[in-house]
């Protein structure tokens, strides 16, 4: 019989090593004893699995605690516990109904020493293979292996609908070298709900914690984890590898899945509803990629997914995880890439989440000067800790390797790079060298990008708003290793310019040209994202000055300027048809606006800009290289006119000219490159087809002949009609 002190600890859920007492054990005299802690059980008997014989009834020494000496046995053997429950109930909803159970304390340690050692040393970048909930089979017993990292806990139990959420039923085994707790729960299965009940180092019971590695979760406001299968490995289709390269045309449609279109019930669309419509629409619009705002599990709708607590779980808002796999496949089948918004910078403080997970600041920095983000009222990951780095890098690899997405757009990179980000003097801690850079975060991002870079075709995109050097340079060259970087400076400068009344634009001419000074220092993506149409900033249409006609014309001209400018493209949903109001995450897009031909015209323009961008290699092949761009006219501030040449490095060219005033200019002489005898107008944002005044240069087969008339410092020119507030594209004949 075990000592009373051990029994007290077991019944109180405070025993440090329940595997040393529960199950089958020999005493000092070599006699075998079996012990079980089964609150709610009426009777418990020991059954020999091989023979099916009932060997002994266990006595109830204390309520819920049963034990007995095993007669005529000196060696361990396979057994089951025959249990009848008080009141005739099962005492659990998902355990085998016959009342014959395998004993979780009859099973040896689940995780191998090598994987625990790798995890402890920071070498396990796929920790989701070890941690979390995994359905496994041991002999003829099927169940779930649970494992969680909580090195400073005194006791951890897994609780769920398989044990009436009773923390005394399944206290876990601590694997000391890694701080990982584990247990195999026989008869638990896919779909079961679970959490971890943790007693901290000083003996206090914490709020129940969701599994950081859960692959599925309940729909908010419920927040239990759900036992879910591990997705099978999913490779990118070969054509996706080519489509993600820097020489490829990349035009991204950013989508908030919950509000692109509402579901048939008027609430969240399902993954399958999205799969049925979104890829086809994006392809019809000519986009090459869809980027989903965060779809990892998160507690608060109003965070748009950016305050996530489930970095391994597709949100339950859209249905079971397997539906997400069908969305990925639908995108790829349509020839469309899928990028996910991924948030490794911070996490919310909800009690069921990562905050003080084992009673200590485990996932977050301990000092609030490092670990608390004032802007978002969130906690910052401790990027210095190996297990946290593995958690984050593992998540990045998980979405690419197991779900087959093309890559990740990494949110708030600037907040990770600098220790003084959004902090006043005296409220931040310098790094070991006395500087402001977060060396641990920089190291983690490089490591993450190196591992993603090993996956053929996969890409990462940084939302980084500072001039930190080498964001999209390879790590071997000292860079961070991202494939692309959002050009936030270009976005801010050009939108400020567009907000100016055209009569004043001459004084702000350089806002449109300044981006070309640094345009090839990174692999840039030009982003007009959701951030530009929220929090009082107004819609894209509302940003434009003038009357309604001028607003539409300005917006069309700006989109033309953007698509002609070096850099990959990104446009947020609703902007492609000039949504009038700010985006509202709680409502579907106002698709009814397309009944108005002005809005439909903008949509037609974006479709045709994407088509032009894809079809003309001069507009995309050297997006990120200086050889792909040459100014024709950069300094005509008086007339607010810009003109340039795009090249692909093989002799193909496109000329772009922009008029940012409402003054039409007939007979305008435009200098053009040598080697072409005639040019044709390939796209005109002022076309009546798009809602414009239809001033242009015709579509005659002969095009516009080149004249030996100098203009813009060139010996040759063409004479064009330059419409008001318009962008024109010309291609050689």
From TrEMBL:
Its EC number is 2.4.1.18. GO terms for molecular function: 1,4-alpha-glucan branching enzyme activity. It catalyses: Transfers a segment of a (1->4)-alpha-D-glucan chain to a primary hydroxy group in a similar glucan chain. Pfam families: Alpha-amylase (PF00128), Alpha-amylase_C (PF02806), CBM_48 (PF02922), GlgB_N (PF22019). InterPro entries: A-amylase/branching_C, Branching_enzy, GH, GH13_cat_dom, GlgB, GlgB_N, GlgB_N_E_set_prok, Glyco_hydro_13_N. Residues 254-639 form the Glycosyl hydrolase family 13 catalytic domain. Keywords: Carbohydrate metabolism, Glycogen biosynthesis, Glycogen metabolism, Glycosyltransferase, Transferase. The keyword Glycosyltransferase applies. Pathway: Glycan biosynthesis; glycogen biosynthesis. The active site is at residues 411, 463. Catalyzes the formation of the alpha-1,6-glucosidic linkages in glycogen by scission of a 1,4-alpha-linked oligosaccharide from growing alpha-1,4-glucan chains and the subsequent attachment of the oligosaccharide to the alpha-1,6 position. HAMAP family: GlgB. PANTHER family: 1,4-ALPHA-GLUCAN-BRANCHING ENZYME. Monomer. Belongs to the glycosyl hydrolase 13 family. GlgB subfamily. This is 1,4-alpha-glucan branching enzyme GlgB. It comes from Pelomonas cellulosilytica. The lineage of its organism: Bacteria, Pseudomonadati, Pseudomonadota, Betaproteobacteria, Burkholderiales. The gene is glgB.
